[in-house]
Amino acid sequence: MLLHIVVMLIYFVVMMAVGIMAMSKTRTVEDLYIGGRRIGGTVTALSFFTTYFSSVIFIGATALGWKYGLPILWKDVFVVLIGTFAAFAVLGPRLMLLSKKLSFMSVTEFIEKRYRSRLAGLMASIAMLVGLFVYAVSIVIGMARAAEVVMRVDYIYALAVTTIITVVYTVCGGYLGQVWTQAIQAVFMLIMAVALCIVSLSAAGGLSSLASSLRSIEPSLAGWPYRDCAPLFLFYISLGFLGWGNPALVMRFISIRDRVSLRSATVIATITTAILTLSLNIASAASRVVIGDVVKPDYAFTHLVQKLLPQGFDALFLVAVLSASMSTLAAILGTVTRLLREIVRVGLSAKSEFIFYRVATVATAVVCVAAALNPPPMLVVLFGVTTAILSGVLIGPLIYGLFCQRITTPSIVVAMVLSFVAAIAVSAYGGFSFPWTYYAFAPTITLSLAVPPMISLSTKTTTGRVHR
Amino acid sequence: MLPWDIAMAISMYFIAIAISILYYFLRKGDPDPYDESGEE
Hints:
The structure holds 2 protein chains of 2 kinds. By secondary structure, chain A is mainly alpha-helical. Chain A contains 21 helices and no strands.
């Protein structure tokens, strides 16, 4: 117990120290929101993947791996190929260039400038605020539950401590505080994921032996045909598109220093994401063999760590879980604050901008904590649909904004409204439960991509030009 | 023996890594496709 507390304290002190260090480097509004557009390739890549993965990558993925076995390996193929590599290679270069030319600091600001429409920017901001807020609450809950296990304290104390620490370094260090702490957290998560994969595989007797053991439990755990194939693959693909639609992730392309950094970030992000996800997916599939039956698959990760590692070492793994959540929460808080700043259009002095950033970040965190204390039923049902909203709604406006000048402003506004409504409506049709929350992704992304060209045929092009 | 579909899933991660490295070297020698003089 003492060891757990010492490990946690060291971790918290390091995070706070990095946040305070970043504060001394944060002088302008651009520094505050996008790190002065001078973030290097390695830090961008590490920051990208820690923003992508919250504690779900450890806890939720292990629960899925326990339930579905080796086919879980398909889950992150899409995240690595579409969400990471393709996002960096396709969106990255153009967004980076345009953000410098048009001086925008967020994706929604880009949409507003590109389509010359305050309404388009506002629609995107509102859709993203809804998606990110619900996402943030689910992360706060997951983070507090992980801390509850690590520190063995009540949920409410775990919730307070983890949120306060995250808010302190986000508020002090601004964007630089976010990405520097994320880089440290990323390295820690990677080491722990690889270690967990190695010990799980050796406990299962290697990959081939694992496949045989899983087949003897249930054939679908070891290969084709898979259980729940259609909804799960839709979920996997929607996770892949999170790298294109989640503004907290896309922000990384705006804050990167230059093309050389972007090129190295593409490789580093792809390699680190592949290593992290492959390691954790193998470990999660092995959990069924290593720990046997569990009452609640959600606790499979904790059981796995406690079974395989000597007492004390498990604290390190659970701190990795905490790192995953805190890093994602910090990025979301920063992005939500920026979205709020774009909605609240008042002229502020540089000093007032800093005050706004700090007050808005703290206020957002307080609202998230209040919601996490006793999540309202509506919020709980929305958890499932956030992936569909974040992955689907923004993709059309973003891709057409970057690559197609014939797409008109009305078409983009209509597409955003329709895709957002479709995400909610399809989930509501299925009672906001599995598998309908995953089915919601298909119409959301289809409408986001198909509506703009169709409506643009009959509307006049009045959009702003972008540089080729 | 590992089932073919699982082996394929694992190989996809390594294919992604290989593509990203290839991309790095292919783009390294490219003329800048985002030349600012190419404004419309």
